[in-house]
């Protein structure tokens, strides 16, 4: 699905502002629902350490490649790291440890199969149940692909990825904008921001739009996607 043009920060003419304003009350309800869910949900504390790789916007920002990179580095250092993903596009709800000889993309989704190449990978619609199974299987660290907005599991460290070219669009919460939650809300839980595919000119244009809302001491890491074998 193509994102509507008024989600773009540069959309300032025509019907875009009016559409955005009409959807703003729904954005407030969306954010209020997320806040209420966080308040009533108790996070599961896994025996293994939990690293979350999430984002603020709807759509992809390079989370899966980031998880693969973290998995590879942890395992190279002798840490038994397992990946945990929902298995988007697959029919299995889990918890399920992927076996690449038995499971295909119809069962677990294509991103899960990519993760399984880097190390043990669990598919689970329930993050808590998946983390529990991974811990029992010997995981020392669980690297979650997505789940930053999921309050049912406690995280030890959370990376929040931002597309360096697109940024945060118009900076508004869905459906008035592309954000899953407000920047201010996310900043309270994020440990580091990762700007992926950073474009210097675009970054300068958008820096004041979202950087000013973040704590001054939050680390900002620059990253880029490169082709791999």
Q: What's the SSE blueprint?
A:
Blueprint (H helix, E strand, L loop, with lengths): L15 H25 L8 E7 L7 H14 L4 E5 L10 E2 L7 H4 L1 H7 L4 E3 L3 H10 L4 E5 L11 E7 L19 H5 L4 E5 L3 H11 L9 E4 L6
Parallel strand pairs: 1-5, 1-6, 2-4, 2-5, 6-7, 7-8
Antiparallel strand pairs: 3-4
Averaged pLDDT: 82
Number of helices: 7
What portion of residues is helical?
25-40%
Structural class designation: alpha/beta
Query: In angstroms, what separates the terminal alpha carbons?
Result: 29 Å
From the alpha carbons, calculate the radius of gyration and give it in angstroms.
18 Å
Overview of this structure, please?
Helix content is 33%, strand content 17%. With 229 residues, the protein is of the alpha/beta class. Strands 3-4-2-5-1-6-7-8 form an 8-stranded mixed β-sheet, sandwiched between helices. The longest helix has 25 residues, at 16-40. The chain starts with 15 loop residues before the first helix and ends in a 6-residue tail after the last strand. The mean pLDDT is 82.
Question: What key phrases describe this protein's structure?
Answer:
single chain; 229 residues; alpha/beta; 8-stranded mixed sheet; 7 helices; 8 strands; 17% strand
Concise summary:
33% of the residues lie in helices and 17% in strands. The chain is an alpha/beta fold.
């Amino acid at each position: 699905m193509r994102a509507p043009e008024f989600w773009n920060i540069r959309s300032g003419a025509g019907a875009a502002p009016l559409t955005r304003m009409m959807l703003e009350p729904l954005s407030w309800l969306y954010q209020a629902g997320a806040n209420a869910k966080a308040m009533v949900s108790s996070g599961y504390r896994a025996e293994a350490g939990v690293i979350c790789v999430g984002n603020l916007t709807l759509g992809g920002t390079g989370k899966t490649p980031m998880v693969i990179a973290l998995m590879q580095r942890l395992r190279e250092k002798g840490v038994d790291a397992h990946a945990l993903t929902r298995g988007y596009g697959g029919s299995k709800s889990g918890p399920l440890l992927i076996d690449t000889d038995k499971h295909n993309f119809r069962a677990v989704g294509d991103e899960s199969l990519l993760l399984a190449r880097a190390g043990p990978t669990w598919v689970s619609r329930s993050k808590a149940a998946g983390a529990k199974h991974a811990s029992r299987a010997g995981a020392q660290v669980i690297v979650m692909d997505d789940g930053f907005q999921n309050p049912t599991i406690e995280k030890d460290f959370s990376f929040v990825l931002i597309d360096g070219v697109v940024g945060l669009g118009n900076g508004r919460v869905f459906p008035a904008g592309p954000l899953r939650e407000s920047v201010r809300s996310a900043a309270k839980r994020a440990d580091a921001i990762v700007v992926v595919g950073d474009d210097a000119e675009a970054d300068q244009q958008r820096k004041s739009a979202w950087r000013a809302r973040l704590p001054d001491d939050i680390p900002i890491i620059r990253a880029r996607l490169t082709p791999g074998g």
